[in-house]
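Deviation from plan, reported transparently: flavin-adenine dinucleotide complex.
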Amino acid sequence: MNTMNEQSTDKTALVAALREILPPESIIHTEEELRPYECDGLPAYRLMPLVAVLPERVEQVQQVMRLCHQMGVPVVARGAATGLSGGALPLADGVLLSLARFNRIIDIDNVNRTARVQPGVRNLAISQAVAALGLYYAPDPSSQIACTIGGNVAENAGGVHCLKYGLTVHNILELKLVTAAGELITVGGESLDAAGYDLLALMTGSEGMLGIVVEILVRLLPSPERAQVLLAAFDSVERAANSVGEIIAAGIIPAGLEMMDGFAIRAAEAFVHAGYPTDAQAILLCEVDGGNEEVSAHVNQVRQLLLDQGATEVRTARDEAERVRFWKGRKSAFPAVGRLSPDYYCMDGTVPRRRLAEVLTGIGELSRSYELQVANVFHAGDGNLHPLILFDSNNPGELKRAEDLGAEILELCVKVGGSITGEHGVGHEKLHQMCVQFSPAELEQFRAVKRALDPRGLLNPGKVIPQPRHCSEYKSLGTDTLIPPQQRVGGRG
Amino acid sequence: MSVAGPETEQVLQAAVQQAQEQRQPLEILGSGSKRFYGRTPVGEQLSTAAHRGVVNYEPKELVVTARAGTPLTELDRVLGEQGQMLAFEPPRFGPDATLGGTIACGFSGPRRPYMGAARDFVLGVRMLNGRGEVLRFGGEVMKNVAGYDVSRLMVGALGTLGVLLEISLKVLPAPEQEQTLVQELGSLQAIQVMNQWAARPLPLSAAAYDGMRLYLRLSGTAGAVSAGRSQVGGDPLPDGEAFWQALREQRNAFFDHQRPLWRLSMPPGAPVLDLPGKQFIDWGGAQRWLISDAAPESIRLVVQQQGGHATLFRGGDRAGERFHPLPPPLVEIHRNLKHAFDPSNIFNPGRLYPEF
Ligand SMILES: Cc1cc2nc3c(=O)[nH]c(=O)nc-3n(C[C@H](O)[C@H](O)[C@H](O)COP(=O)(O)OP(=O)(O)OC[C@H]3O[C@@H](n4cnc5c(N)ncnc54)[C@H](O)[C@@H]3O)c2cc1C
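Because the crystal trials were delayed, the predicted structure below was used instead.
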């Protein structure tokens, strides 16, 4: 964890020094007021920060960073705290730096098709602001009404449309960041590339560990002339999963290709009445977009292909209202499932598409052996799974069981050549699994990168990159309830 | 030649380990087709050419993994058989150009503004760092945010951070049809038109201007191409593909010069740049080629004022700055990153910037 700061920080001195930089209302330090900052979208992990600050100007962020650098106080950045890996989990001896007040769209450039925005701007607000120009910002996480673009950059967020239009890293041009030492730097630029190393890529997805994002230049794309969504029902998860590869093999890159299993279908239907077939074992939502002619051709081709793959029913949204409804069911699937259980835990592994069916079967087996229900709603086109584990934290030991089941699911993803996280990040949550996905030398290389940008280890320390000792312990001993990965033979019966 | 694979990897690893012990600088190269790029190469040559071959190709996954020494011609053939392609349309600059060199230089062709750059398609790398350790970052999946994005950091780093061993790339289906349309236009108007079409939902896949004529390429289904054509107008160019290839490879008349060639990376809507010499606009306005004897500082100043950066691509002084000078805080970050990957400073020292 934070090795720089053995003795606990003098809170009184810190608050006094912060008062020199920020107005009183931008400094939060009483227990009562700090409570809302104790966790992000993964409430299983909670910690009260020493102090939370809400600057509204870049110079203030720089001053806060300089002060913390001087005092050796760690800093955790926070956007909207919709993160699902505990990335914005505060540190007990650290400052929580909220970017919430950086909520301005600074400039929209319709010639170069870009928008310059502050990090606290909500993802959806960008597309809304440029809609009249016939443009939009492509990455659309399901949390887009709430999450911030700064948080998106820090996590390299994706969305249902990233199969065709890419992740955050593909859709931004320039970042302004405040470094650990309080310096303001610009990486990337207004052109399509920049001189030197691709620091824009390095910063994207760095989970607040390499710099604080204070300004973003995003690329905007023309809104497609037409988008059409097909809904295919299947009586088996395997058949649905196998259809995914067939669509792509036919040379079609759908704008979105999402899958939901029976449990998720029924939960979403009960919640938002999307018109889903509630007797299906799985549905695929396939959106194709482009010019009128192209969309018509692709809709016919995909429909036939889905029927050939054994779909029991294929529907095409008749109008825009129905298209929106089909998507609404998907986008509200997490809360819909969440409604049916006191607690749920959302995982985020990726696997090669051809292993989808096999991994879903494996998850089913693990679910039975852990006696916890798992619902699957995911970005099938990208092979990005989001198993939702349902549990009740009031039952003793159940949270731990859910975490262990999650760990086994992620390690199964690594085993078939995938990754422990496709878009939610490692955060605090997946430190153990980093030891499974990466070798000691690779983890040491990550640490060296971190030192290159933050030599004193003050930006979000303890997240993402585990220490060597953690890895050796986890690999040989496991946790107090989880068998070490090296000794495991499938589920735990 | 030995069998490519574990053997050739071990040869490379041993060479790096030895170089590190002896503090011997290495010039990493594939076929050598891009030796002209960057500052003067120094050090003992370490060739990846023998470390070649496609390791894994899954057309349904849209992923190919190949060793660094794999010639692009081989990749083209393998992908072409499945109706797929490298969508960043990499230039080769030589018949034997390798995948490793292409990624290390980060070169992308005319399709870049519409489909993405080399870095956008890199999913993972296997590499040797300066300690001679074999490391793997990223992978063969479309999405992967575990740890820092080291794979993309390697793209365009000109081999200064490591020796690329294998690269996993996202590939895309080749378009059903392509058509190039030409019209005569003034330069101001050409830039306007290119940007105007890029803001519309058209199947645009390339846009260039040679000083007199605007060339637009449309790609997609037959219906999409013909619908697009009725919007953008212009006359069909009979051998459009040849035009884009010549531009990509710098083989058309514009590039037939011994004078310094500059690559100006600009915001696409930047106006016509007031610089002595002649210009050719590619990437829908975002990449401008300049042939000019003007002083580097004066070129850089004009380009920077318009939000771009300038690379001395060919010719001129190879001992001086080839790439746009970085502001001091970024120089320090670059130096620190270089040290993080290559503590003994053995990989292509000075090739990118004189400082490291
Ligand atoms: C219902 C639901 C659905 C979701 N769907 C998706 C989805 O489809 N795709 C997807 O990718 N994610 C999804 N997420 C996850 C989450 O919304 C994203 O990770 C999002 O990018 C987080 O943004 P945020 O503003 O909430 O960031 P936070 O949670 O506040 O922070 C996330 C991380 O970024 C860092 N950070 C935040 N702001 C900055 C900054 N300005 N500078 C530096 N570091 C910073 C934090 O320290 C933390 O490590 C979903 C979450 C929920 C709750």
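The mean pLDDT of chain A is 94. We consider this an acceptable substitute for the interim report.
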